[in-house]
Amino acid sequence: MLCLGLSGGLDKVYENRFQIPNSFMHDGAAVLVRDGQVIAAVEEERLNRIKHSNKLPISSVQYCLSAAGVQLSEIDHVAYYATEAYCNAMLENMLASEPDASIPLDAKFLVQQLLAQEFGSELDPSRISFVSHHQAHAVSAFAMSGFEQSLIFAIDGSGDFQSGLVAVGSGAEISQLATFPENNSLGLFYLEVIRYLGYGLFDEYKVMGLAPYGDPVPYRELFEQFYELSANGEYRVHLDRIGPTLLRTIQVRQKGMPFTQQHKDVSASLQEALERIVFHILRHHREATGMTRLCLAGGVAHNCSMNGKLLYSGLFEDIFVQPASHDAGCALGAALIVSGELGRPAPRARLQEVYWGPDLASDHAVEEELKAWAGHLEFERTEEVADRAAEWMAGGAVIGWVQGRSEFGPRALGNRSILADPRPATNKDRINAMVKKREGYRPFAPSVLEEDAREFFDLPGSACEFPFMNFVVRVRDSKRGLLGAITHVDGTARLQTVSRKASPAYWDVINAFKQRTGIPILLNTSFNNNAEPIVDSVADSIATFLTTGLDGLVVGPFLVKKRATTLEDWTALAVSLPPYVSLYKVRAHTALDRQETVCEIRTDHSSLDGVRISHDLFDLLTRIEGEAVLADLLDTITLDQAQREALTGELRRLWEQRRVRMRPSQAARVHQN
């Protein structure tokens, strides 16, 4: 029995028929289960390279079908992660705002139509289902927890006009106890506050990392005006009070401005308020139900600091957090719901790993990809890849590490990771500045051999398995000075324990590092820069390697380093524009308050994220039809050597921002082969 779960929007990628806002139907993904067991899963952003992609996950579906070796017509059931009534209401709202758009107001027909267009076979409407958004969250957690019984808490921003639920899971049944309306959303509560800290949607985790730098006391009473706690675990948030109050009280931070202590204290108060409300809800339902285990899902369940507080509180004997708790995880829940309804529930077993995405190509194919970059890369194959990588890191290198199938969810768990020595505090600053290009306060996670975790981390009770980076735990006092790169300012770390059985290649490289240094831990962060999703393919990893300050790259059995390059090496590359970017000429004010025509490159047709480029580069990019070798493009206009170097440098900066694509030309690939 094959069941396919979907999350994401109701439009095809690079189309904007519906002008779907990113706050609606984001984080597209596809998950394929056979008889209740996951065989393939991937987020659409990993494949189309658009962060939080809010389109129908066509590429993800293609991958899942390919992984199973089946056609769409062989899928027994397709499940979408929201109710049909909700989807139809959203379509009606979009039609009201876009009266000239041709939008079918039947969501089931629309999904059927889009899948038929892409895959050439039309599914019978009876094989397409729509499931409750928060039920999908709940099932995605409980079915993967291994618990026979537990309390379930699914909480996020919104979905199906609600923001969460509390339920009890028992066997194959889930009984709902309470739901939370959209206007009482803890996700929206958090989001509304961070707008005044210079952040927005999808930035919530950044504020969670900022909170330990602040003190909640100065704004505690202020935040108590924003929510009320009442009997029976009930609560109310006052979203309408937040903006007016903060505008009167704090200096609003604009994006890019430095953080003041005031901003840090507000972050701390916000985190404290969230935790107080969540504990209030869970204490009541823990006592009312007698449940000693807890399952968490929904976007708010990615708040690892909150999860850590729950872990140490002793309120529950065991807590399971679904590793893809955000909306992409609803694709998993949707697939499991219909699989269960068709008599194939998920086996009752604790989830051990989520390496469900695309595998690396064959060693031969990887080698051919590396050869094509001969002007930029040098590489060697080795049978001692873990030892050599550990040697690099022990010597101070920061490396990209790409092995096996990619992880499902937002965390790099050792197959698409950036790795480094966890000891020097300077590693944190270096990676933030030169690789991730992000705020310097943000912490990095440690990956530790499961059997050594308790020596370095203060873990509550008998718990020793934390494979998904879902909990912030305490670094032992005696180890904090030693682990300077992964210990946060409050003495904590977002822990991943690594099992030799579940992740043998990753265990091997950590163990090899231990043999050299005595430290069974590596700094682990996602393999990407600030402008892109986590890498998935070999090509993705090469692009990120060449556009960051990484010292080395390990792909399968290959050790890769950068060559010293010349202008000719760069101009030999082919250049193209991704489908999600557009070129514009607009009138704008200059520093002298004069108007002039400027050139911009924008993503997703948005005027808000435009990057200014020179007129020469604009003219150059407009000459591209599909793909063109940079040297040939430069030859179409009269330029001296300095101008060629300047334009090439400007183009390389756009590549770093993923606003253009650069890769070896087909001619270069043929020559290398």
Keywords summarizing the entry:
673 residues, Nucleotidyltransferase, domain 5, ATPase_NBD, alpha+beta, five-stranded mixed β-sheet, ten-stranded mixed β-sheet, NodU/CmcH_Carbamoyltrnsfr
Explain this structure to me?
By secondary structure, this protein is α+β, with helices and mostly antiparallel strands. The chain has four domains: 2-132, ATPase, nucleotide binding domain (Nucleotidyltransferase, domain 5); 145-321, Nucleotidyltransferase, domain 5 (2-Layer Sandwich), CATH 3.30.420; 358-562, Carbamoyltransferase, C-terminal domain (DHBP synthase, Alpha-Beta Complex), CATH 3.90.870.20; 567-671, Outer Surface Protein A, domain 3 (Alpha-Beta Complex). It is built from 24 helices and 28 strands. A ten-stranded mixed β-sheet has the order 13-22-21-14-15-20-16-19-18-17, with helices on both faces. It has a five-stranded mixed β-sheet with strand order 3-2-1-4-5. The chain has a five-stranded mixed β-sheet with strand order 8-7-6-11-12, sandwiched between helices. Helix 6 (186-194) runs parallel beside helix 9 (239-249) and helix 10 packs across helix 11 (304-313). The model has no long low-confidence stretch (mean pLDDT 94).
Please give the largest β-sheet.
10 strands, mixed
CATH architecture term of the largest domain? Alpha-Beta Complex
Contiguous uncertain segments of 5+ residues: none
Q: In percent, how helical is the residue content?
A: 25-40%
Oligomer: single chain
Over all CA atoms, what is the radius of gyration? 25 Å
Could you report the average pLDDT, rounded to the nearest whole number? 94
CATH superfamily of the largest domain: Carbamoyltransferase, C-terminal domain
Structural class: alpha+beta
User: Within the CATH hierarchy, at the fold level, what is the topology of the largest domain?
Assistant: DHBP synthase
Pfam family, one: Carbam_trans_N
Protein name: Nodulation protein
Domain Carbamoyltransferase: 23-336
Domain Carbamoyltransferase C-terminal: 390-562
